[in-house]
Design brief:
The chain has two domains: 33-127 and 242-284, D-Maltodextrin-Binding Protein, domain 2 (3-Layer(aba) Sandwich); 129-239, D-Maltodextrin-Binding Protein, domain 2. Helix content is 39%, strand content 18%. It has helices at 3-28, 33-40, 66-78, 90-98, 174-182, 194-202, 213-222, 251-266, 269-278, and strands at residues 42-48, 81-87, 104-105, 120-121, 126-128, 130-135, 166-170, 187-191, 208-212, 230-233, 240-242, 245-246. This is ABC transporter substrate-binding protein. Keywords: Signal.
């Protein structure tokens, strides 16, 4: 075979390869979840059925919950209808996203490295921190004998100055882990639910109930009478990100939602929703 014939044969073979490449690429990379949403004209969002005011069961008119309003705004942005699916645990949200039972989860969900193995998290739409609700009578008095105010105790870290502090917290949470690390020589009582942990505080079994700051703020909106006896310690001690859980490695879908979030933050919509649900009690029945 001549050198010219060998060149022509190599040229045509390489041409065949490049002609076939788009077909292989198309079969390897299927439509993203965003394409599927647009095709069926419906966005299915998982919400947390036990975490008001992110999602409120049987809500007052105009107050469906923070995450519900955020989901509706995103569906409107995409030009599709919205379907909500109330769930409870991260495992449920993760499994439903993986199986396409839901497209994403807006559930007051905090990010964690372990969780990032099964879902991709969006940019945060809210920030929170480990916080506390402390019995005022357990705080050291000022020289005049008055109960100390928030000017002295602002964060849960300030309680490290008090000997004999005791805490209640929901077990196996970021807040529980924070206590175990920062107050390792202190009595920490962990419970399966926040309601039982709160009872430990109101029954005077512990000095301080610990949860994230948004949960503390919402609790005070639902039970304003608590403010007379208990002091909220909500100044930041660590950043905890509240983000949307989305399909693993679906970067096109995630990027679309991140742009939507950025615009809502820029225009003040996120801050309006935060004020509506965490800084007033109009949503409370």
């Amino acid at each position: 075979m001549s050198r010219q014939s060998e060149f022509l044969r190599a040229f045509f073979l390489s041409g065949f390869f490049f002609l076939q490449l788009p077909l292989f690429a198309q079969s390897k990379y299927p439509d993203t979840r965003l394409d599927q949403i647009m095709a069926r004209k419906e966005l299915v969002v998982g919400v947390n059925k036990v975490y008001d005011p992110f999602y409120i069961q049987d809500p007052k008119e105009g107050f469906p919950g923070f995450d519900v309003e955020l989901a509706k705004l995103y569906a409107d942005y995409l030009g599709v209808s919205l379907k909500l699916k109330p769930l409870k645990t991260f495992r449920q949200f993760s499994d439903e996203i993986s199986s396409s039972g839901i497209d994403m989860a807006l559930a007051g969900m905090s990010t964690e490295l372990s969780r990032g193995k099964t879902v991709t998290f969006s940019n945060p739409y809210l920030l929170t921190t480990t916080a506390g609700l402390v019995n005022k009578r357990n705080l050291p008095p000022e020289p005049e004998g008055n109960i100390v105010t928030t000017r002295t105790f602002k964060s849960i870290a300030d309680l490290s100055l008090i000997s004999g502090a005791t805490f209640s917290v929901r077990s196996n949470t970021t807040n529980h882990n924070y206590l175990l690390k920062k107050f390792d020589k202190t009595k920490i009582y962990s419970y399966l639910s926040d309601s039982v942990a709160i009872d430990a505080l109101t029954n005077n079994n512990v000095m301080c109930y610990v949860a994230d700051s948004l949960y503390i703020l919402a609790l005070l909106q639902k039970n304003p009478g608590l403010k007379a006896r208990y002091l909220p310690l909500v100044a930041p001690v660590m950043d905890e990100y509240i983000s949307a859980a989305m399909p693993l490695n679906d970067l096109i879908f995630v990027d679309n939602f991140n742009f939507f979030l950025k615009e809502l933050k820029r225009t003040g919509v996120i801050e309006e929703l935060r004020t509506k649900y965490f800084l007033n009690n109009e949503w409370v029945k």
